Amino acid sequence: MSLAGPLHELSIADAGRALRAGEVTSLALTEVALDRIAALNPALHAFVLTLPERAREDAARADAAFARGIDAGPLQGIPYALKDIYGTAGIRTTCHSSLLHDHVPTADCAVEEKLAAGGGVLLGKLGTFEFAIGGPSFDLPFPPARNPWNLNHFTGGSSSGSAAAVAAGMVRMAMGSDTGGSIRGPAALCGTVGLKPTYGRVSRRGVFPLAYSLDHCGPLSWSVEDAALTLQVVAGHDPLDPASADIAVPDCAAALGQGLEGLRIGYTRRFYIDNPFLTPDATRALDAAAERLADLGAVVDEVDIPDFALFDACAQVIMFAEAYAIHETDLKTRPMAYGRYAYQRIASGAVLSAADLVQAQRLRRELTDAVHGGALRSHDALLTPTSLSTAAPFSDFGPDAARWGGMLTNPFNVTGSPALALPIGFGTDGLPLGAQIVGRPFDEATVLRIGSAFEAAAGVSGHRPPLALPAAS
């Protein structure tokens, strides 16, 4: 292949082909990434820690492996970054909190083990909401990440730094986590792809938990193909994660490009159309996305799933109960070490009863059965919103923790279904809008196939934020 354009714009797939053809080195990709981080991060605050020496060592190791004919997989020689709840041996992992400001794990998390074994190049750690909850707080050790499309707006959360870094082209792929939408929400508001795999598909071992039964790990990336290639590396059974599923991982990238003929996609329009946070921009973009999928050959018709309020109540009770159980000792002994937002949200779990949690778990089973045995029994996937509006400005966040409305992601943490966030257009304010493709359990291949076809036809993913900063070359 012939390299055209700046190196930082090469996808994982294209960079991989160039590496294997000897047209570029991992060290060259890494130096470009480090230069771009140095130029952009002072304004975006996506990275809380950069690791230039480690990155150069990883890159040199990958280049040497290529020279010896060793190929460890699609991420060999590719720079990436981790949300700062992913444990890394000998490298500070803070969860964006004063409580863990100097915390240095002694072991890598399972995802980092796989990325390192696959020859990836670790650039650093990315900002998050404190303990992956709370909001864009200014009372923490590091400032909140800013949206590359407008620095006065937030990124969504809690994989805030991951979304900002990918959207700004600092990195092609960043790992995030998703307990109620923390991969898909930032992906939607920053105009990137974000994949929440099926619950149990990717090990959470060594990743600081928010809610054990809702937590998922997955990538944010520039493209669906890059998400698929990343999943091939990080997915798989881990006997040390009690929730890990011992189910074979298919070649998800092989399903890309097959087209949509023969697929049935359920459009959950009635699920959101009366939501008070719905904007005209989002309505137009979602309807246009449904029409585009039909134009691509899929059978698209409207389907019903249970009311969002039921999913939301169920998810909130489970998340706050489990989060409180994790943080109870620190909340009682070191309450002032928490930021205000995280403290207020996690401490709310103290008032929940055992009966509340039992009822929420019972409702969870009913809701999961209603989705998997209903709309997803008759359809291969669902089209549904991620957010019903564009990113809010920081000025909308007051002194106390508040839930931002219009984010419709947590239903699929309740069900554990695979869900892929995709950019589908822009609002009149110039900020991104997104939708999600939701699939049957462990059928990421179909979800990615649909997303890839939409991405190629819509052309939205090729748009980049108008950053008034020098581009890397």
Automatic annotation (TrEMBL):
Residues 29-448 form the Amidase domain. Hydrolyzes indole-3-acetamide (IAM) into indole-3-acetic acid (IAA). Coiled coil: none annotated. InterPro entries: Amidase, Amidase_CS, Amidase_dom, AS_sf. Pfam families: Amidase. GO terms for molecular function: catalytic activity. Gene3D superfamilies: Amidase signature (AS) domain. PROSITE patterns: AMIDASES. This is Indoleacetamide hydrolase.
